[in-house]
Amino acid sequence: MSVSSIASRAKSKAEHFDVLIVGAGISGIGGAYHLSTQCPGTSFVVLEALDSFGGTWWMHRYPGVRSDSDLYTFGYRFKPWIGPPIATADEILKYMGEVIEENDLGQHIRYQHKIVSASWSSKDSLWTVEAVRTDTNQQLTFTTNFLWMCQGYYRHEKGYTPDWPGMQDYQGTLVHPQNWPKDLDYKGKRVLVIGSGATTATVVPAIAADCEHVTVLQRSPTYFIPGMNQNDLADRLRKLEIKEEWIHEIVRRQILSDQREFTRRSREEPDVVKQELLAGVRAYLPEETVEAHFTPRYRPWRQRIAFVPDGDIFKGVAAGKASVVTDEIERFTANGVLTKSGQELEADIIITATGFNLSVLGDIAFTVDGQAVDFADSVTYRGMMFTGLPNLLWIFGYFRASWTLRVDLLSDFLCRLLKHMKARGSTKVSVALRPEDRDMKLLPWIDTEDFNPGYMLRGLELLPKRGEKPEWQHTQDYWMEKDAVPAIDLDDPVFVYEGGPLDGRLREAAN
């Protein structure tokens, strides 16, 4: 059999869909809902590498795993949230499962489908996606007119753990929360948690009561917002028997208004905001503890701030079940960790809550017309489309607002774009720098002086560039984007359309 006949036969076996959604997490399920409701008749499939829906919320199994954002804004705009603002992973999965069931989305989802490569052909105006069934190792081929990347932004397989000296000498159990063992027994054990972020704030109160003692070792403190896990406005509206749909929208708008003001104040009056945040911690802990272990060296909002329901981690420290050491690691020892100040912290179990590894568009091997794609060579259009990559959109959420806000916003945009392409008979759309943009200075994906989490600093060189103009960057400003994105002119020269009679006539007129 000839090579050409083999290729033809392989192509004939490919399943075709108008849109292929990558990932069945919070972004992919939201995208599937909007596509089914806003673009009825559009064929689509959702390919998910994991065994079920949920993404982050399905994969993370460490004790106490919960949101660090309120579910009134982290939840979808179309599905009222009726539980406590900070929700457990199980509660979020239940919510997502209801979205799937209520909207008959399950028929579109294929689990255990890991995408290996995606190839664009300008000749055919198609993406060809190669995937592998992780349960059977079967190789599958899909073709699609449009690729919608909803796979998130970090690698699920393995979390980030620094390579500290002497790690091979440690005789205890070493665990990263992202790969939490099902059979890990921490009852009555001495546990050391390395890290100071939201994961630490979640794990420590969840395990402290069962451990002999939990020690948190942090290089530097982090900001937290302690408070009751309830929303007074929602509770008052429910007493008035207001419809849940109205409560969801009213509370959502109030929270977003408060967050916008908080973000503004963090930039314009950081010292005042800092003292307000520290006052929340002082309500649980003495001044010397707050000063030594809970007073960050950076201004508020340069890194994500987690909400701590009922101040649970601070209560654990106050009760003596947990303690905090602010120091750096010199090396691991057989019994634990030696800090640079000379203190040995002995532990039966060490948990490295040290972050994750950045994944750019799922670490999929992309090619365009046979040429390998290096995303770092492209320029982003509003953090969702990229120069040189046709018919593709990536959902990358917000740092200072809930991720899902951008899911709803960009879903509206993509559905509008698909309708626009259909109306003009176009089979291809890409973004390109306009003549007035070509001398624009190109910069890294984010301004690290404004926001600098470790995973971004470690992987920044992998991400596309941004420009100086707002349309050529992911501004991270939901309050600007909520008005700007719906107002995007789809006939702006930034969008280059090809295919169809209208585009042919336009090219003839241009010539």
Characterise the protein shown here:
The model is unreliable at 1-12 and 504-511 (pLDDT under 50). The chain has two domains: 3-156 and 358-510, FAD/NAD(P)-binding domain; 167-352, FAD/NAD(P)-binding domain (3-Layer(bba) Sandwich). It is an alpha/beta fold. Helix 6 packs across helix 11, helix 7 (232-239) runs antiparallel to helix 8 and helix 8 crosses helix 9. Strand 19 and strand 20 form a beta hairpin. Helices cover 31% and strands 21% of the residues. The strands form seven sheets. Strands 1, 2, 3, 4, 5, 6, 17, 18 and 21 form a nine-stranded mixed beta sheet that branches. It has a five-stranded parallel beta sheet with strand order 7-16-8-9-12. It is globular, with a radius of gyration of 24 Å. It has 15 helices and 25 strands. It has helices spanning 3-12, 26-38, 56-59, 71-74, 89-102, 198-207, 232-239, 244-268, 270-282, 287-293, 312-318, 403-424, 454-459, 478-484, 501-510; strands spanning 15-22, 44-47, 109-110, 113-121, 126-133, 139-149, 173-175, 190-194, 213-218, 224-227, 306-309, 322-326, 329-332, 336-339, 344-346, 349-352, 365-368, 371-372, 380-381, 385-386, 392-394, 428-431, 442-443, 466-467, 495-498.
CATH architecture of the largest domain: 3-Layer(bba) Sandwich
Radius of gyration: 24 Å
Number of distinct helices: 15
Top CATH class of the largest domain: Alpha Beta
Number of strand elements: 25
Overall pLDDT, averaged?
92
CATH superfamily label of the largest domain: FAD/NAD(P)-binding domain
The number of distinct structural domains comes to: 2
CATH level 3 topology of the largest domain: FAD/NAD(P)-binding domain
Helix content: 25-40%
Note the gap between the termini.
46 Å
Regions with little confidence, pLDDT below 50 for 5+ residues: 1-12, 504-511
Rough outline: globular
Task: Give the class from helix and strand content and strand pairing.
Answer: alpha/beta
Beta-strand residue fraction: 15-25%
Characterize the largest beta sheet: strand count, sense, and whether it forms a barrel.
Answer: 9 strands, mixed
